[in-house]
């Protein structure tokens, strides 16, 4: 899933490619992806792109006084097309194409989503705040408002909730997903199950800097990369996420995994839990 660093890099890349360009049309290939009807998608036809920015994990392409907001969900991506096909894109259940943005020189963008579970979302709105997911976002880790004091207030309000889930909840902190929450907690040497409200004092300082440094470093590495390079850059710089069974780059212990119904987390027991493996509830049920 693209998270804050990748979406930030996508926004920067697209801003350079789209600035001052006109949108000829947008072909919708997956009707379920469009979540709004007023203004219609056709309202962007002929509009000049005014800018591209990001809100958490949402992309925001502003054109003609409107905003095309895009959430790539778990398996969505954007692919630049030096030449778009002459014929408009058509719905095709076997194709990953969700939508195509055709520009004024026959270049464009393909918005795709792999897999059968379709969660990618497009919104055409007059203000980004008209998108419920944007309106409910918590503070952005890269913003000035995200201070150590703000983090302390968030953790206190979340009570005994596990810190892994708190970091991932977009209404609490914007832009952090499954991968970077694993990386942040590994950098902080903290258990994913640690209760949020118990993180105080030195632990709070450590977690705050782990968030800022992990996200900030990932953004710095991603900045300037084309969309085609971002997935490889992310994967090659992860310490624990997606690396179950491999050696922890810090201590050499084996990276472990806990599986859930639709996701998993990875961690290092030596670095994060005092050497004690976390219970994998799904595996425990299988063994009964």
CATH class of the largest domain: Mainly Alpha
Structural domain count: 2
Low-confidence stretches: 284-288
Radius of gyration: 20 Å
CATH architecture title of the largest domain = Orthogonal Bundle
Biggest sheet overview: 4 strands, antiparallel
Alpha plus pi helix count? 9
Helical amount? 25-40%
What class, by secondary structure content? Answer: alpha+beta
Strand order of the largest sheet: 1-6-7-5
Pfam families: Fapy_DNA_glyco, H2TH, zf-FPG_IleRS
Catalytic activity: Hydrolysis of DNA containing ring-opened 7-methylguanine residues, releasing 2,6-diamino-4-hydroxy-5-(N-methyl)formamidopyrimidine
Protein name: Formamidopyrimidine-DNA glycosylase
Domain FPG-type: 239-273
Q: Could you give the topology of this structure?
A:
Layout: H1 4-18, E1 23-28, E2 49-55, E3 58-63, E4 66-71, E5 76-81, E6 97-103, E7 108-113, E8 121-125, H2 132-135, H3 148-158, H4 163-168, H5 178-187, H6 201-222, H7 227-236, E9 255-259, E10 264-268, H8 269-272, H9 281-287
Antiparallel strand pairs: 1-6, 2-3, 3-4, 4-8, 5-7, 6-7, 9-10
Domain Formamidopyrimidine-DNA glycosylase catalytic: 2-93
Organism: Nocardioides phosphati
Catalytic activity: Hydrolysis of DNA containing ring-opened 7-methylguanine residues, releasing 2,6-diamino-4-hydroxy-5-(N-methyl)formamidopyrimidine
Your description of this structure?
This protein has helices spanning about 5-20, 130-135, 150-160, 165-170, 180-185, 200-220, 225-235, 270, 280-285; strands spanning about 25-30, 50-55, 60-65, 65-70, 75-80, 95-105, 110-115, 120-125, 255-260, 265-270. With about 290 residues, the protein is of the alpha+beta class. The protein has 2 domains: about 5-135, N-terminal domain of MutM-like DNA repair proteins; about 150-285, Helicase, Ruva Protein, domain 3, CATH 1.10.8.50. It has a 4-stranded antiparallel β-sheet, with no helix packed on it. Helix 1 packs parallel to helix 6, helix 1 packs antiparallel against helix 7 and helix 5 packs across helix 6 (about 200-220). It is elongated and about 60 Å long. The relative contact order is 0.13. Residues about 285-288 have low confidence and may be disordered.
